[in-house]
Specification:
The chain is mostly helical and about 425 residues long. It is built from 18 helices and six strands. It is globular and about 75 Å long. It binds s-citryldethia Coenzyme A (SDX).
């Protein structure tokens, strides 16, 4: 017998079904609430509201659990390639050898970006923010592929659109990087694996001269896997609400990239490095900056700390912290901000303000240190987050269409003026 919750409001009592997921999470199905009682719920930031059921990613914030399609993130980060994880998120299972070879082959056939897109790069100011470029270029892909505009076309057409976006995104990211540093672009070498090809296009000097550092490829592969999906976060929810109107995939993902840019979300990885640099330039006084973060009259927050869901630890932060140590050591990089980050983390984890609010380092706290050690400028950090999150956005968009989810249209509680009559300009 399915559980229910009883709601009594004035002289109306209704039974609301309790939905239970495969990990024993429970939710109240309120789809009949307004029709039965005239009430809507109010939940700013949707802190208590589930937008959908989903079979893609499972998080447990108290236990610090993160699994993609049931596989623990620790095992995927250690053993899988980013394209294996992308396939897993998109199609539901890890690919066998033939499936992975076919997926890699399909991706390799679509890595080139239409040469006309170079004109976009000429138009951007030389030091314009890479996220602004990425948002507009990804949305513009829809103008090059009019057959992608209808997400309800055949499954083959939808799959081709997903493959095109996955395959071209690294090329676009590398072109943005090259523009940022004023270097000529490097074209894809499709005999290389996904991450090696990306690193060659980004840090290579000439298309034909391939020099790949295995340590860096391994670190980037791990970072992209750790960012690949995170259930109904801000940017994914944005992709889905735009996609729920049946806008095309490029437009939906472009909207998600916009949401990711915010410093409270993916933009935090850039904000963390800027914060650590400020602390370093300020003499490394971590106590002073912790006090600022705790001071309600001070707008400063400890970037890279806190999370809407994780209230114990972010499992990704633990993996990235270890990777930061090993990558910097292998690259022989001695980055003073790494020591400041560790000092800051140590102090915050022992501070009542942070402990009482369950504020721990999140995925963004250490990732920027690795990106900087590899050679990315700080304004490229959130673009790297988007590169990692892309398969998750696409998988969640695909699932939303498969579930035939209705267009997203939340209600509100109006608190403005009651009815009043128009007043002519001369009488105001
Ligand atoms: C990502 O959702 C996802 O899954 C996101 C993500 C993903 O993979 O998609 O994991 C990626 O976005 C990680 C988060 C990156 N953002 C930051 O690091 C920015 C700094 N963190 C915060 O702004 C904040 O912690 C959030 C936005 C991450 C979470 O905010 P919530 O859940 O809305 O929590 P809150 O703002 O209500 O804070 C609760 C309390 C408040 O204090 P009180 O009013 O109770 O006294 O904690 C305080 C906040 O002031 N607080 C902080 C803080 N974060 C929360 N105080 C100082 N420094 C911080 N970082």
């Amino acid at each position: 017998m399915a559980e229910t919750a009883t709601l009594t409001y004035k002289d109306t009592t209704i039974e609301l079904p309790v939905i239970e997921g495969s990990e024993q999470e429970k939710g109240l199905d309120i789809s009949k609430l307004r029709g039965s009682t005239g009430l809507v719920t109010l939940d700013p930031g949707y802190k208590n509201t589930g937008a959908t059921t989903s079979g893609i990613t499972f998080l447990n914030g108290e236990q610090g659990i993160l699994r993609y399609r049931g596989y623990p993130i620790e095992q995927l980060a250690e053993n899988a390639s980013f394209t294996e994880v992308s396939y897993l998120l998109l199609y539901g299972d890890l690919p066998n050898k033939e499936e992975l070879a076919g997926f890699d082959r399909k991706l390799s056939m679509h890595t080139l970006v239409h040469e006309d897109i170079k004109n976009f790069f000429l138009a951007y100011p030389s030091k314009s923010h890479p996220m602004g470029q990425l948002i507009s270029i990804v949305s513009s892909l829809s103008t090059f592929y009019p057959d992608s505009l209808d997400p309800n076309r055949s499954a083959e057409k939808v799959d081709l659109t997903m493959i095109r976006l996955l395959a071209k995104f690294p090329t676009i990211v590398s072109w943005i990087f090259k523009k940022n540093i004023g270097h000529p672009i490097v074209y894809p070498q499709n005999h290389l694996d996904f991450v090696s090809n990306f690193m060659h296009m980004t840090f290579g000097q000439r298309t034909e001269d391939v020099e790949i550092d295995a340590v860096i490829v391994d670190a980037v592969n791990k970072l992209l896997i750790l960012h690949a999906d995170h259930e109904q976060n801000c940017s994914t929810s944005t992709v889905k609400i735009v996609g729920s109107s049946h806008a095309n995939l490029y437009a939906s993902v472009s909207a998600g990239i916009s949401a990711l840019w915010g410093p409270l979300h993916g933009g935090a990885n850039q904000a963390v490095l800027e914060m650590l640099e400020n602390i370093r330039l300020d003499g490394g006084n971590t106590t002073k900056w912790l006090d600022k973060a705790k001071d309600k009259s001070d707008p400063f927050r400890l970037m890279g700390f806190g999370h809407r869901v994780y209230k114990n630890f972010d499992p990704r932060a633990i993996i990235i912290k270890k990777a930061a140590d090993s990558v910097l050591e292998k690259l022989g990089v001695d980055d003073p901000v790494l020591e400041i980050a560790k000092k800051l983390e140590e102090a915050a984890l022992n501070d009542d303000y942070f402990k009482s609010r369950k504020l721990f380092p999140n995925v963004d706290f250490y990732s920027g240190i690795i990106y900087r050690a590899i050679g990315f400028p700080v304004e490229m950090f959130t673009v790297m987050f988007a590169l990692g999150r892309l398969p998750g956005w696409i998988a969640q968009w695909k699932e939303m269409l498969e579930l035939k989810s209705p267009i997203g249209r939340p209600r509100q509680i109006y608190t403005g003026h009651n009815e009043r009559n128009f007043v002519a300009l001369n009488d105001r």
